[in-house]
What does this fold into?
Amino acid sequence: MMDILGMEFMRNALLAGLLASLACGVIGTLVVVNRQVFMAGGVAHTAYGGVGLAFFLGLPVLPCAVAFTVLAALAMAMASFGRAERSDSVVGIMWAAGMAIGIILMDITPGYNVDLMSYLFGSILAVPRGDIVFMAVLDAFILAVVFFWYKDFLALSFDMEFARSMGVPVRLLYALMQVLTAVTVIMVIQVAGLILVIALLTIPPMLAELFTNSLWKMMVLATLASLVFCLAGLAVSYHFDITSGASIIAMATGGYVLAWGAHSLRRLG
Amino acid sequence: MHSPDHTCPTCSGHEHTAVPGPRFHRLLAGGPVIEVSGVSFAYADREVLSDVTLSVGAGDFLAVIGPNGGGKTTLVKIILGLLRPERGTVRVLGADPAVVRPAVGYVPQHALVQPSFPVTVRDVVLLGLRRGNGFFSTRRWPGYSAQEKRKALDTLDMVDMSDLAGRRFDALSGGQKQRVLVARALISDPALLLFDEPTSNIDPQGKVCLFDLLSALSASITIVMVSHDLISASTRITSVAVVNNRLIQNRGRELTPTMLELIYGTHDATCPLDEYIRGMSSIFTAGGQRSAK
It folds into this structure.
């Protein structure tokens, strides 16, 4: 263990895992209870357009991808709000378009030689110190927003019609929720990659919901579960020399299956 | 109210005598609680309400009945101030509906809330507490005071659900969920309760329990309920209105042939509708006689 902590890239990886877990636990919970996993998938793939734009313009990838994805998430929120029967189609279009824009921009970027796979499958072992600071700032923003409007997010998620009758600004909060999802997605892309980001946003909250009876407890348990999966995945990745992002997701999936089995057995007993 | 041998798993079967009158908003004597005048509303090019006029007095228990798509829910949303009518005026408690929202308790169908959600019964009721207006109100702080938690339990007691306060909401039956949603609307001491299809997805015994509760509540609070469930409502209400694009109101509880024609279509003397109308009218009339206070 001390060997691992002695290496800066591993310390950065652990910090990145911690910060990503915090965001995934909190926002993943909102994504899961609002049944917005497909929307989060759309946001994640649209992020690829932001990555392509950053390379094309020669800008820092993380801030540029955040800005692009937040705008895309707002567009999705506006297009899908109150149109449940068509929201999946809107998300599907933006999902594909975001990916296409990213690929085209990378294709036409002169001298482009970045490893595309690192954005598809993540590279937690290569997260630089500057990105750790940026992730910490985003985490603080996410936690502050959810803390301050917790009751409204709870009301909106549980019963949107009643929340509206109570004067809760549901449209604004719905858009804010998509923005927070976009911010989280960008952050987690560093850790688990574009392809696997949905798993980290989904599996820990799904596991947490089995054992909790309130939204905030679900957020806390999902954060802890996500952190455990990140640490276990990193350890397995280090010892067996396998891709870290895939290793983390494998741990999460295994953990969820075990938890679901234990929960089912407890209910039967 | 409950018959002496009333038992069911939805509630403990006791009389709902715990419903306190003075707790709810006091109404000024005289003026109507709801006054809808000449209201029309359309979604895109489809007019769902046409020149609707409705008046609800203090202490009324009004059932608004109509077919699906007839404009019942739209009417509720207009009364709540969630939709603005294209023509006509709406006054609730003498003011614009959006202004008096804190004095109106809204009970949607339980089927519209998230079917699986990590929230306890007590926390659902606490969601009904009014918070400070404005996006940055300091009352948005997470958590509740001991006084608020006590009030939630007191309110759950009124609907006979305090024993299940710590249980997850999604573990309840349909009837129990609807009672919890009633408690959520009651916790802010409203002057008016608005129900949207309260008996949908509830078993027959649960409906009886729910209407027992509403009967008890109607002694101290004005209730408006939109429903397609004529028979369940018939014995408890004090007045009835039907809506199907247009609206006809009756100050009594009888459904006239004109009202039934509005719901079920053109009156053809040669079709069995005549008998149906007589049958339905007699149900309401008989119900009224049975439950006369």
